[in-house]
Amino acid sequence: MMELGEILAGIEIVSFTGEKRSLIEKITFDSGSVTERSLFVAVKGTKSDGHDFIDGAVKSGAGAILCEVLPPKPAKNVCWIKTADSAKALGQAASNFYNNPSSSLKLVGVTGTNGKTTIATLLYKMFTKLGYKCGLFSTVCNYVVDKELPATHTTPDPVQLNKTMAEIVSAGCSYAFMEVSSHAVDQKRIAGLEFAGGIFTNLTHDHLDYHKTFENYLKAKKSWFDSLPGGAFALVNADDRNGRVMLQNCSAEHYAFSVKGMADFRCRIIEQSFKGMGLRIMDEEIWTRFVGDYNASNLIAVYGASSLLGAEKNQILTILSELTPVAGRMEIIRSEGGVTGIVDYAHTPDALVNVIGTINKIRGGSIQLITVVGAGGDRDKTKRPKMAAISAEGSSKVILTSDNPRTENPEMILDDMESGITRDMKKKTLRIADRREAIKTAVMLANPGDVILVAGKGHEPYQEINGVRHHFDDREELRKAFLQK
Q: At what angle do helices 384-394 and 349-362 cross, to 10 degrees?
């Protein structure tokens, strides 16, 4: 319970009616969860407007309403707070309500199209191995020390985010690492948080269904870097031209990492196989269990961030050699018949280029690469033909299939994908809407020594069809198919 005035600290208030000493027991932006003494924040969302539910919140006993537009006849038994940006105010109010937990931690965020989950998770594992208690917010899972919490979004809503962060502080954690999605930045979910550092991985084609243009997508990422404080660090990928953009007007201390050129933190690949790769990080050589140029980039980002957070060089290198890939990221499953299966979360054109390119660098000329790939429904349609073309161009055979069709007809999604396939490439392309059958077919087509890539879903244990999530795990299906062959 907290006084309303304390909750509103730091929020730009246009007008206020009521008593600032009123006690608030709960903050919510969901009118259905309002109880007595709740502060209801009316946020304008992409699908609905919280202002339309103010009357319901008042009837449910809300003690205060924070909004951008006051109703014509505000109820007299309620505190009314008008602000210019209720989404931003929600983040600050949630942070205040949970006693600004991020200020008691070294909170490091990771943003970019690809690599966020791997870098955030490896930093969590790194500092855990260094002996610290840590928290993690990721696409795969959230952690409070070793307590696992389900992840519903890449970055949680402001109330859940601050509530969990307060648990992290109460558990005695010194560090927290989190993925910062472009949606979260645009929707002000991270408003009110204090970051000790920010990491930028790369920026490629994704989420244009939401941001509409690549420029808007870039601006969302950059606006977070613009907000980093002077005492924080900004660590960017020098191999991505947008890395320099992130540092423009950024008050944090500037650093860069690279696997191609000169930077503050440098990494080179010495050798690689499906079992791992040898790296030269700065002037030291280590063997890691990761594969691919993009993972070399992820690992040098982890090295750089760990150094900036004060970890000792030799300890970092030792732990990097012990770490294992994140679930569903270049996860390798081998059959008794000698076929190598790879499950990867690659669901963007750039991610497919990276994972297919990595496999093709390692496999011999006589070894087939059979790729199973789909594209999600109700998402950016413009990437569908590109993903199909990339898969067909880089593979011996490609099977186009379903991947979380959501409310769309799977066959229509496959039509969009097939539009990117040329006449020549159609000779090595199959179309099987049933994802389970597509994986089985790939296994049937594979000979000993061949490689099967199942791309798009990675760690996800479900298939979303018409609003219902059905259990489906690419890794389980691949193992079953291997046993049945």
A: 10
